Amino acid sequence: MSDIQGPDKSARHVAVIMDGNGRWATARGLERLKGHVKGVDRVRELVRACPDFGIEYLTIFAFSTENWKRSEREVTGLMNLFRRYIRGEAETLNKDKVRVRFIGDRSRLDAKLQGLMAELEKLTEKNTRLNLTVALNYGGRDEITRAVQRMAKAVKLGMLKPEEISEASISNFLDTADIPDPDLVIRTSGEYRTSNFLPWQCAYAEYIFTETAWPDFTLKEVVKTLNDYNGRDRRFGATAIR
Ligand code: IPE
Ligand code: IPE
Ligand code: MG
Predict the structure, then answer these.
(1) CA-to-CA distance for 184 and 222, rounded, in angstroms?
(2) Mutate to test the pocket of ligand 2, among 24, 195, 197, 214 (most ligand atoms within 8 A of CB)
(3) Which pLDDT tens digit goes with each residue over 181-202?
């Protein structure tokens, strides 16, 4: 059990845009990469706490399709960090009964990283205590574009009829097929935008933006955010109940 007092109840699926690592490091006179390294500590801590908090699905934005625009040094550093994280955490994640899945376009990632991702998915595929989804080289528009290409191919092959295209079938062609839509999206570090994160899946998600940088987003802040979420009235288009 986590030693922190958990929320009253929880969102089933929490998605996080872990932002502010670079600024956190720069403000301390450190290299941006040091912020990413510190950010991994927060990921580890949150993953461990999720089951105690009643969270069944956690999706984290690790690298966007737009992040290739960063310096080669930072991109390489991040890719090394992803490899190190997977290698270092695989056993613990599996022991903690976490099922890990990756979403995004893997084809642009190096072969070694792709291999580690596939291995971790395979190793943890039977686990059910927490579903951790890591968005790596993920972009919402890119995901929808790839899904539409696959759907068009299925139609051409006679495996899908145009009239069978529905919200449900589109969802099934996305990288997140089998994963319920997020209830809550948290974005740290004071930016008020979604940056192409799960646009289809978050059509009805609640958003909470916080000023805290991701490396400082400790469990205390997580609980505060989850309690804020609990105070929200989710109407899904229906009449207000209070
Ligand atoms: C988020 O932190 C992590 C990634 C995008 C990989 P940033 O690196 O975007 O940090 P800031 O926004 O520059 O401070
Ligand atoms: C979003 O953060 C991507 C991740 C957290 C991985 P960015 O820092 O890349 O987003 P922008 O550039 O501020 O929109
Ligand atoms: Mg950022």
Answers:
(1) 12
(2) 195
(3) 999 999 999 999 999 999 999 9
